[in-house]
Specification:
Number of helices: 5
CATH topology of one domain: Photosynthetic Reaction Center, subunit M, domain 1
Oligomer: single chain
Subcellular location: Cellular chromatophore membrane
Number of strands: 0
Structural class: mainly alpha
InterPro entries: Photo_II_D1/D2_sf, Photo_RC_L/M, Photo_RC_L/M_CS
CATH class of one domain: Mainly Alpha
CATH architecture of one domain: Up-down Bundle
Radius of gyration: 22 Å
Keywords: Bacteriochlorophyll, Chlorophyll, Chromophore, Magnesium, Membrane, Metal-binding, Photosynthesis, Reaction center, Transmembrane, Transmembrane helix
CATH superfamily of one domain: Photosystem II protein D1-like
Strand content: under 5%
Distance between the termini: 48 Å
Order of helices and strands: HHHHH
Organism: Roseobacter sp. B11
Family: Belongs to the reaction center PufL/M/PsbA/D family.
Amino acid sequence: GHGFPYGIFSHLDWVSNTGYAYLHFHYNPAHMLAVTLFFTTTLALALHGALVLSAANPEKGTEAQGPDNEDTFFRDFIGYSIGTLGIHRVGFLLAINAVFFSAVCIIISGPVWTQCWPEWWNWWLELPIWPSQVGM
């Protein structure tokens, strides 16, 4: 089968072999976006979970903090707080976009682009901003 195996290193081997079998799949721009969004979702919601746990699990004898304390922390730390409902909406939006770009990645890898993915990036080299390479 083509499903990935259990285990860290065997999974990494599967990712590498599948990427090369499907013409350097990791160079697909939609794949890059999808993976970035998956990791961003994980980071944002992990930070949110850590903040909630730090506010809800105080030292012994100290009262638990509420959402106002969390908002104040972020306003002091980064200058803006999205709020208690907003972070869940951002997490959902990031996750849905990751799924969407994963689907786009699979759909364009065949019907739309049939060459190796590193060749797709040649459009950058063909821009007229580069000096001429004639005679080199």
